UniProtKB/TrEMBL annotation:
SUPFAM superfamilies documented for this protein: 2-isopropylmalate synthase LeuA, allosteric (dimerisation) domain, Aldolase
Descriptive protein name: 2-isopropylmalate synthase
Any one GO cellular component localisation term in the record: cytoplasm
Annotated binding of Mn(2+), by residue: 15, 205, 207, 241
Pfam families: HCS_D2, HMGL-like, LeuA_dimer
Pathway: Amino-acid biosynthesis; L-leucine biosynthesis; L-leucine from 3-methyl-2-oxobutanoate: step 1/4
């Protein structure tokens, strides 16, 4: 049996934008919509045009500039003026779709609208009839469906389908459903819907209040849903929406079980997630499935050993499949001899055997206990010092001291670095303290690097919180990462930048030795 196609509607620009702090301007929305097109989503929900002139214009601009090969929709209430705003904003797209929402649960009908069920149902029918005079494609969302009385929900669906709705969206608006129950709801709706009009597309829209959005969406797919609504990074009202990357990868990795596929270009997933983080300033938790920083990082010895023997031992999908760099082995005091040996060999050294290896490994453990994470340049020092090859370590930079003065006028950084036996001192001004620091480091090292990514997270609470800084820089056409942790976030920022530079220097040294056929770094 051929795999079933599941349509993907991305609502990051509508439900995702309902998150406090996630407000984007028009240019940012268009940039994100362009990335969604590269990701190959089927439908982009671009906004709620009746809410403000700014949102109307953003939806219109997305429809005009991005809506040539991807369907564009926007949301409105079951109110004529909202539907007019939706129509006017999306009509320039090639495949415009009007989206109308109206509550179906007793709570919504009684508390929000204070009307009879019949009156609310009629509002929905009238809204769909009106929308159909404007466009052929109309989606109707039965808001709060998972808490609705089933027979009332069904009469609403039947009535709006008869009025011309071409898509029925069943939302778990408040994230109340659990997977078995939601699957059963979709199975029942699907069964009846196919008898009324088999052409109508059945869609689901889940929220994550109990952390079940992905599970509920997958359960709905198993039970006949043709279309899913999701957001990148699971961004959305309250605890968020179904995370697009999680459902798409679950369908891909467990294809044999679901027998469903989406058109999503999975290698664009991480790029899309990073763009959203950059545009909104809302970070992804480090252990978030698929797009979290640690999603493909392995730090314990038994896992690292298994992965080095065969990636499948601890990897169910390859990082490259979602657009991430290849798997990352993070060296910590929980790492074992296999991972340590591998890292030393990657640097171009021979880690030795027997007693020699054991001595080196014990020194590594001491360092790892003190430093939490051990980076390439730490290993480099460890190995070269151990072998009395101090001359080779002349090329790496170490932070000796720094002072940053920050004010409105000209934030300034004064710092000194050590390079082998030489101490380099200098200062710089910048747009802010980190900018001043990085300008100073660049001037002292003389390395023409460009900073591509800077991220800081707090990894503990209180005034003693440890800041973890991750950077990416470009040097010689390649991207290098650096990270560092410290209770002083300015120090962590300087150290991460230097770690990235040292990684670039080590790589360059290795490339040169490869070219000359003379392994300069090995003993
Ligand atoms: C589950 C969801 O995510 S639904 C989408 C949520 N998105 C948004 O709310 C978009 C942003 N919202 C807005 O900009 C504004 O709330 C607007 C423009 C929609 C409405 O603003 P206002 O006219 O000032 O109304 P306000 O928001 O205070 O109240 C909502 C009104 O719409 C009514 N309403 C709510 N949902 C619907 C609906 N689906 N269909 C028709 N009327 C509705 C409410 O009953 C209330 O009407 P009332 O004044 O008669 O009691
Ligand atoms: C508009 C609808 C689909 C919605 O966002 C919800 O019910 O959560
Ligand atoms: Mg929602």
């Amino acid at each position: 049996m051929a795999n079933r196609n599941i349509m993907v509607l991305d609502t990051t620009l509508r439900d995702g934008e309902q998150v406090p702090g996630a407000k984007l301007n028009m240019q940012q929305k268009v940039e994100f919509a362009q990335q969604l097109k590269r990701l190959k989503v089927d439908i982009i929900e671009a906004g709620f045009p009746a809410s403000s002139q700014g949102d109307f214009q953003a939806v219109q601009e997305i429809a005009r500039t991005v809506g040539d090969s991807v369907s564009i929709t926007a949301l409105g209430r079951a109110v004529k003026s909202d539907i007019d705003a939706v129509y006017e904003s999306i009509r320039l797209a090639q495949q415009p779709l009007i989206h109308i929402v109206l509550g179906t649960s007793n709570i919504h009908v009684e508390k929000k609208f204070n009307r009879s069920k019949e009156a609310v149902l009629q509002m929905g029918v009238d809204a769909v009839r009106y929308a159909k005079t404007l466009l052929p494609h109309v989606q109707y969302s039965t808001e709060d469906a998972s808490r609705a009385d089933f027979e009332y929900l069904w009469s609403t669906i039947e009535a709006v389908v008869k009025a011309g709705a071409t898509m029925i969206n069943v939302p778990d608006t408040v994230g109340f459903a659990e997977p078995e129950e939601f699957g059963e709801l979709i199975r029942k709706v699907n069964e009846r819907l196919k008898n009324v009009n088999p052409e109508v597309i059945l869609s689901v829209h889940c929220h994550n209040d109990l952390g079940l959005a992905t599970a509920n969406t997958l359960s709905a797919i198993k039970n006949g849903a043709d279309k899913i609504e999701c957001t990148i990074n699971g961004l959305g009202e309250r605890a968020g929406n179904t995370s697009l990357e999680e459902v798409v990868m679950a369908l891909k990795v467990r294809e044999a079980r679901y027998r469903c596929r989406t058109a999503i270009e999975t290698t664009e997933l991480l790029r899309t997630s990073r763009l959203l983080t950059y545009l909104t300033g809302l970070d992804v938790q480090v252990n978030k499935a698929i797009t979290g920083e640690n999603a493909f990082a392995h730090s314990s010895g038994i896992h690292q050993d298994g992965l080095l023997k065969d990636k499948q031992v601890y990897e169910i999908m390859s990082p490259e499949e979602v657009g991430a760099d290849s798997m990352e082995l993070v060296l910590t005091a929980r790492s074992g001899r296999h991972a340590f040996k591998h890292a030393v060999q990657q640097l171009g050294f021979d880690p030795g055997e027997g007693e020699a290896l054991e001595q080196l490994f014990q020194r590594f453990l001491e360092l790892a206990d003190a430093k939490k994470e051990v980076y390439d340049h730490d290993l480099f020092y460890l190995v070269t010092e151990h072998r009395e090859q101090a001359a080779s370590s002349q090329q790496l930079f170490e932070l000796k001291s720094f002072q940053v003065v920050t004010n409105d006028e000209c934030p300034t950084a004064a710092l000194s670095l050590r390079k082998g036996d030489t101490v380099l001192k200098g200062s710089a001004v910048g747009d802010g303290p980190i900018d001043a620091l990085y300008r100073g480091i660049k001037a002292l090292t003389g390395l023409d690097v460009s900073l591509k990514h800077y991220k800081i997270n707090s990894i503990s609470r209180g005034t003693e919180a440890v800041g973890r800084v991750n950077i990416q820089l470009e040097y010689g056409g390649k991207i290098y990462s650096g990270r560092a942790m410290d209770t002083d976030i300015i120090k962590a920022s300087a150290q991460a930048f230097l770690n990235g530079m040292n990684a670039a220097l080590l790589d360059t040294a290795n490339d040169q030795s490869d070219l000359s056929g003379n392994d300069r770094l090995s003993s």
